[in-house]
Amino acid sequence: IVEGGIYIWYNNDWLLVEREDPFFFDYNDQNVKRYYEYENGAWVLADPKVRITDAIETREFFFLPEAITVASGKKNATITILKDISGINSRMTYSASNTTCTLDLNGHTVRGAVPFTDDNNRGLLKINASGTTFTITDNSANKDGRLENICEQNKVTYAVHLMAGTLNVEHGTIHAENPAQYASKVSADLGVSAVLTGCGARG
Q: Per-residue pLDDT tens for 20-62?
């Protein structure tokens, strides 16, 4: 362990472990970043956890926050969750205006722990996208995907903060909780529309 992170010896070189999670990355011959996870006593090549599809391309990502940022630069994108995701500790903001975006939980659970900061920053996922319709759905057979924000702090906790735009929640479960039980699945600012037609109740 050294200043700046944790390094491990792999393939005759020291590699930086970027986060507390047990993974690291390297690059293949085409200079494409590859991630490795520690499973069953060995380092194995990690599968992507998120896919973004639009009219131009399909890209896969290991981190959902990175995928949300990239999707904010696209028009009419679909974000599909490929594996369960946990440990998100920073707010994800979607900000593409005058378009549509769909988050397909795809039968998986997305879990974070992001507490209320102030009126402009609340929720695991913040949608600040004027003129945009953002849809959360689940196209898996059982439609049992979940978007969860579970905090240890006794602060107001939201799963989704709709700051600008329109939110449609069609399928899946949106959930928020904290020890004080001051929690709500969606917080919407005045003048914006959130339509929750087919999502599970809080808790």
A: 455 666 666 766 667 777 677 777 777 889 999 999 999 988 8
State how far the Cα of 14 lies from the Cα of 32, in Å rounded to an integer.
Answer: 19
pTM, 2 dp: 0.80
Q: Choose among 69, 114, 105, 60: nearest CA to 85.
A: 105
CA distance 124 to 165: 17
- Extract the tokens encoding 116: 């209320």
Is the model more confident about 21 or about 112? 112
Phi and psi at 100, nearest 5°, equal -130, 155
C-alpha distances (whole Å) from 116 to each of 8, 147, 160, 201 are 35, 17, 11, 20
